Amino acid sequence: MSRFNVLLFTAFVSATCAQFIPPFTEECRTDMYPPNGPTFKGGVGWYTVDLDLPPHRRWTPLITDKKNDLVSMIQVIRDLATAFVPSGRLIELVDLTLPLMVDTLPDPFKDEIKGIALDSGIPLGEIALFNIFYEVFTVCTSVVAEDAAGNLLHGRNLDFGLFMGWDTKNKSWIVSEKLKPLVVNLDFRRNNKTVFKSTNFVGYVGMLTGIRPHLFSLTMNERFSLDGGYIGILEWILGQRDGMWMSFLTRSVLENATSYDDARKLLAQTKLLAPAYFILGGQQSGQGCIITRSRELSLDLLDLNVKLGRWYVLQTNYDHWEEPFFLDDRRTPGMTCMNKTTQNNISIKTLYNVLSTKPVLNKLTTYTTLMRVSDGTLESYIRDCPNPCMPW
Ligand SMILES: *[C@@H]1O[C@H](CO)[C@@H](O)[C@H](O)[C@H]1NC(C)=O
Ligand SMILES: *[C@@H]1O[C@H](CO)[C@@H](O)[C@H](O)[C@H]1NC(C)=O
Ligand SMILES: *[C@@H]1O[C@H](CO)[C@@H](O)[C@H](O)[C@H]1NC(C)=O
Ligand SMILES: *[C@@H]1O[C@H](CO)[C@@H](O)[C@H](O)[C@H]1NC(C)=O
Q: Which terminus of the chain has fewer CB atoms gathered within 10 Å of its CB, N or C?
């Protein structure tokens, strides 16, 4: 970029952001739970996914129920793609090439995605695209905290839809808004017994937020890097398939890992298509960590250490040993509120307060999930961020 362009860009960013100041931040919230008021848009319904069914039939009840919302979401993505490449060539490419890629996906993901396309009547390539999105565009906040009694609590805001269509009239992200009706809680069962639970978007077979009761809780946050997800996905399409899709790894860990340590090891050591942060919580004192991943390896492991005063770990979308990007600092406000809460007063309730404080809560926040491994609790809430509110 030339100097002039940099100046123009800076001016543009400043002008765009100026309308959102104040407030970048607000006082730590205290009375948000049970969820109420304008930041709470509604509860989240439960569905069962029966793992004993063949993969292509597992999602049928859910897709049948939510078909209209899914179709309407995919239409928004189509419109955005057409606005971007007006000839319609982009969607044509998706419809032609991505179905070929689906066949290269491992089981059960291949058949699950095919089943969802059949059940919804949406072209296979577009369902595949919907499943790829989260590998590259998820910005969030996750926290694992240990209370004074040694219970582990895990909370997260899922922020999604950055740069995907800003609705100037409504001051909201079009895709983020469309995703809200697609948020569901899922109970994955085998022999009619819960194996794990998750908060998910309908039509998506990977996992961003989940719990295996009495063993561990897990969330994934996007990690931006020059060697980012785009390259890994391109390599996959070109035939180099030794890396794993990030959200397929989280799903298979939730489905198969037998302990916190087992999960920690799988998340740290499996080769990935995209860099990521995994935030893992357990059942016993000290079991909580942030795993910072490059595609190849684990770059850093930050564990809870109550003796050292580290009774919680909090992760947004920046390496914890670096400063966050100055226009997107959700870490400092998040940590300020955690510190104010103190270990003596941390609970599902106060964790929700932290996750309800702007800009930890922002225009991209679609849902907040709270988990407690010791009794298998997973509860989630659809969020709204009324103006004035940061766009991210
Ligand atoms: C603990 O948190 C609750 C809920 O936010 C708050 O009302 C209460 O004042 C806090 N207690 C202390 C000792 O900080
Ligand atoms: C504006 O946003 C709300 C949700 O915040 C949505 O229900 C409504 O349909 C949107 N209006 C328009 C015109 O997009
Ligand atoms: C599965 O378990 C639930 C309760 O956990 C029960 O209501 C339901 O009848 C069971 N279904 C079958 C097929 O056994
Ligand atoms: C929160 O407390 C920790 C531990 O005392 C400290 O390292 C950190 O700088 C504090 N952060 C903020 C934003 O207050």
A: N
β-pair partners for 381 = 43, 368
pLDDT for 241 equals: 77
Whether 140 is catalytic: yes
CA atoms of 244 and 109, how far apart (whole Å): 12
Q: What is the pLDDT of residues 153-184, one digit of tens each?
A: 999 999 887 666 777 777 777 788 889 999 99
Task: State the chain's maximal CA–CA distance in angstroms.
Answer: 64
CA distance 20 to 387: 9
Q: For ligand 1, pick from 29, 341, 347, 350 the residue to mutate: most ligand atoms within 8 Å of CB.
A: 350
Residue of 171, 220, 179, 216 whose CA lies nearest to 196? 216
pLDDT exceeding 70 applies to what percent of the chain? 90
Distance CA 156, CA 279 (A): 10
Residue from 29, 339, 342, 345 to probe ligand 1 pocket by mutation (most atoms less than 8 Å from CB): 345
Asked whether the whole model's pTM tops 0.85, one would answer: yes
Q: What is the pLDDT of residue 163?
A: 64
Q: Given 140, 289, 385, 389, which residue is catalytic?
A: 140
Q: Is the CB of 141 under 6 A from ligand 1?
A: no
Cα 265 to the chain's mean position, in Å? 21
Nearest ligand by distance to the CA of 348: 1
Helices (H) and strands (E) in the chain, counts: 11, 16
- For ligand 1, atom 10, which residue shows the shortest CA distance? 345
Whole-number Å distance between alpha carbons of 358 and 392: 10
